[in-house]
Amino acid sequence: MLQKGDKVNWEECLHGHGHGFFFYRYRCRQEPRLQRKVTYRKRDKTSEIVFEVDGTPCRDLDDALERLKTPPVLTPAEQAVYLQIGDEFADRPPGDGELLIMYRLADKGMIEHGERGQVRRRKQEGG
């Protein structure tokens, strides 16, 4: 579990752009439920950093670290999809409406995506 003052090791997991802005989203390697989104606005040359836990924005990194102390809560739909995913990377084309659920499961640190759309359960702490 990350503590205040620990060095956070980030990996880029998504980037994109729109009219007048671009962004990068990073996932914490030590705690995959923690993400950081950095948005750059071209017009006024400003940037904004938002930390998220389980896909929900936090006030700051301290707030995010506090939220990590609570385990993620899965909705019934997320639980149903999660139970269909194995421990080894495998092809798992999402069914109707499942793509968003799979992204939410990744945000909650429950699954990870591999190459060519493969997914697996993320090994949990102590497991």
Describe the model.
With 127 residues, the protein is α+β, with helices and mostly antiparallel strands. The protein has two domains: 10-67, no CATH class; 76-121, no CATH class. The protein is 19% helix and 35% strand. The chain has three helices and eight strands, in the order βββββααβαββ. The chain has helices spanning 61-67, 76-82, 98-107; strands at 10-18, 21-28, 34-41, 46-53, 56-57, 90-91, 111-113, 118-121. The strands form two sheets. It has a five-stranded antiparallel beta sheet, with helices on one face. A three-stranded antiparallel beta sheet has the order 6-8-7. α2 crosses α3 (98-107). The longest helix is centred in the C-terminal third of the chain and has 10 residues, at 98-107.
Keywords:
19% helix; five-stranded antiparallel β-sheet; 127 residues; 2 domains; alpha+beta; 8 strands
List strands and helices in order, with pairings.
Blueprint: E1 10-18, E2 21-28, E3 34-41, E4 46-53, E5 56-57, H1 61-67, H2 76-82, E6 90-91, H3 98-107, E7 111-113, E8 118-121
Antiparallel strand pairs: 1-2, 2-3, 3-4, 4-5, 6-8, 7-8
